[in-house]
Structures are given as structure tokens and as C-alpha cells.
Amino acid sequence: MDLEEMMKRIREASPGFKARIAGALYFLSLLTAVLGESVGGKVGFGAGELAVTGMIAMTLLFYDIFKPVSRNLSLLAAFLNFVGLTFEALRWNPQGVDIALVFVGLQHLLIGYLIFKSNFLPRILGALMVFAGLAWLTYGSNPLANYLSPYNTASGILGEGLVYLWLLVMGVNVQRWTEQASAAGEWRSQRAMQA
Fold it and tell me: How far is CA 165 from the centre of its chain?
């Protein structure tokens, strides 16, 4: 199977399957990143880059999953995560500030809002993602991040980890996702006709 065929199959996959894949990619990326940090050197660098690649795929899946809620906010969340992942891949931390985590925090705030506005995931997951986003935003200030450490890291991982665990185990309510996607499609077509 070539790359084009694989991409076609992913586009045609059900939202429940995409959610489960996103959850699996999160945990594999997290595991790979932790392994990379503990090993260090070239192997650690390679593991870190592999983790970033998994997060890129997960971001694309998230865009597709949350597009029916708000295409623009879903696209903005994906963009913010891509910027953060770029900083992570480059390992760019000016004056020790973890810029990547700040962008991840902003992305999590948007995803939390999208979860809350969706009708295919429990709203508590949106609150957990916002909680994680706020925890990651503390890394925008070294004194604040150091003062709150390790609680900010634990809060971020716990908040997002519970959301991704839900996605891995439960996925999304496909019927409700389809209804919301249909309503969003109808709204877009009506708006295009008015323009």
C-alpha cells in the first residue's frame, strides 16, 4: 500500500477510529519522548523527533475530529500545535522558557473549548483539557514554572492523559459526531448560498 492509498483510508475512517488512533498516538509519543529524555544522545534525539512525528499525526486527526464543531478554531488549534511542535523539534528554548509547551497550552485551551461545544464527547473532558492547557501555560515564565514544579507538569499530563485515555478506550459518539458534522455542512452550504 502506497502513501496515497494509506492517506485515503485514513480520510475515510470513522471518527471513532480516528479518535482511538489519536489516543494511541498520544501515548506512544509520550512514551517515546520519556524514553528519549532518559537515554539522551543521538538515540534520545531520534526518539524525540519520533515523538514529534506522532504528535503531528495526532494533530491532523484532531483537526478532522473537531472540524464539525468549528472549522476555524480546529484549524487554529492545529496551527498552534504545529508551531509548538516546530519549537520542540528545534529544541528552541530562549532563556530557558519552554515555548513549545506554551503553544501546546494554547492549543489545549482551544481543544477544551471545542470538546465542551461538541455533542460527541463528555463536557468534563473539555474541562480537563483546559486544566492541562493552563498547566502548560505556566511554562511561559521560568519563575512561575519552577515555583509550581512538579505540580504543573503532573497536572498537564494528568489532564490531557485522561482525555486521550478516553479517546483511546471510548472514542467519540459516532452518531452524534455525524449529526454535528451534517449540521455544520448544512450551515456552510447555506452560508455559501447567501454570499
Answer: 13
- Assigned C-alpha cell, 179: 449529526
pLDDT tens readout for residues 29-54:
999 988 888 888 888 889 988 999 99
Closest to 132 in 3D by CA, of 154, 117, 113, 114: 154
Quick one: which H or E segment has residue 129? helix 123-137
In angstroms, the CA 190 to CA 183 distance is 11
- Please say whether the beta carbons of 119 and 179 come within 8 A: yes
- 19 to each of 45, 91, 124, how far by Cα in Å? 28, 28, 17
Q: Note whether 131 and 109 are within 8 A (CB).
A: no
How far, in Å, CA of 149 to CA of 75, rounded? 31
The answer to whether 78 and 62 are in contact (CB under 8 A) is yes
Could you tell me if 119 and 172 are in contact, meaning their C-beta atoms sit under 8 angstroms apart?
no
Asked if residues 97 and 141 have their Cβ atoms less than 8 Å apart, the reply is yes
Q: What DSSP assignment string belongs to 61-92?
A: HHHHHHTTT-HHHHHHHHHHHHHHHHHHHHT-
Sequence-distant (6+) residues with CB within 8 A of 155 are 131, 132, 134, 135
Contact call for residues 32 and 54 (beta carbons, < 8 A): yes
pLDDT digits (tens, 9 = 90+) for 120-131: 999 999 999 999
pTM: 0.87
